[in-house]
Amino acid sequence: MVEAWHSFLGNVKLRRFTVLALLIAILFLIKSMLSMLLLTFVFTYLVVNFVRFVHKHTKIPSSILVIVTYIVIIWGLYIGIVNYLPQLVNQIIKMTDSLVQFYNHQNTTDFYKFVNKYVSVSSINEQVKKGVTLIFSYATSIGSMAFTFFLSFVLSFFYAVELKQLHRFSQNFKTGDFAWFFGDIEYFGRKFVNTFGVVIGAQFSIAIANTIITTICLIFMQMPQILTLSLMIFIFSLVPVAGVIVSSIPLSIIAYSEGGFKQVAYIIIMIVVVHAIETYVLNPQFMASRTELPVFYTFVVLMVGEHFFGVWGLIVGVPIFVFFLDLLDVKHIGKNKKAVETAKPD
């Protein structure tokens, strides 16, 4: 028995596979907390890397930078909630009303006659019913989402402000009889940050750039509900590849209701141009360690991720897939990136 145990500890691949399986099982048991864990990781990753970037150029103590950063974020949230949240709610209501009117008068529009050649009325109505049901389900979960966001925000603050202390304390786990277990957890943690963090951090940067460019174009086109459309574009931009396609559908419908097929043509041209900028400028700029996954693999991963994790699967499916590619030595991401080593103190 003792020899088998020592043989198990000496077999690094088998040992790490067992630890990984145990971690996946634990995550499955606490799947109700996955949203909080993912949000905490995203907040922490973005803040820690921002603080390190500023600290490198200013030499201001990291703890002060973290506190100032979170104060600025809280101030921004307060301004957004007080000044812009009412506008956002009003714009969402107006946009919903315009879409409802569009469907109510669909029998008299040329656009509907065109769509009806390819899509049946029952199919459209069924999708609308599903969409309304989904909206109501999301509306009822706003409270829990806000609570999850708050907890993640607080946890990320304590992690970022106590980064050095956390690193020193965590080293204590690497002593004793189970040092191998915590060493393997650290190995997977570094792999996770080195792949998942780089990819999702880059996707956030791309989403922000996409939103800014598209919003400027929509302002010049005098589209209504700019604030709502900008938020929608940002959320869809977090989904690699498919986000651009999905966001074009509501944009085209609203454009048609405002200016007919001419406005729709402008929207399509804008989306093609923005997608070209994302592909040839933003991806090389922000994704220095980009996935370079074929489109087929990307869509398959998105479908599987949505099936198992819902909306979160669309956002984190590709980063998780790349993480396992790195574990399997199929493709390595960001091996030399110092910025992603959040386990180390400044």
UniProtKB/TrEMBL annotation:
Q: Name one GO cellular component term.
A: membrane
Q: Name one GO biological process term.
A: transmembrane transport
- Return the InterPro entries for the record: AI-2E-like
Q: Does the keyword Transmembrane helix apply?
A: yes
Arranged from A to Z, the UniProt key words for this protein are: Membrane, Transmembrane, Transmembrane helix
Q: Which Pfam families is this protein grouped with?
A: AI-2E_transport
Query: What membrane topology does the annotation report for this chain?
Result: Multi-pass membrane protein
Q: Where in the cell is it found?
A: Membrane
Q: Which residues cross the membrane?
A: 20-48, 60-81, 135-161, 196-221, 233-257, 264-283, 295-328
Mainly resides where? membrane
Q: Does the keyword Nucleus apply?
A: no
Q: Which PANTHER family match?
A: TRANSMEMBRANE PROTEIN, TRANSPORT PROTEIN YDBI-RELATED
Q: Which family does it belong to?
A: Belongs to the autoinducer-2 exporter (AI-2E) (TC 2.A.86) family.
* UniProt-recorded name of the protein: AI-2E family transporter
- The species is Paucilactobacillus nenjiangensis
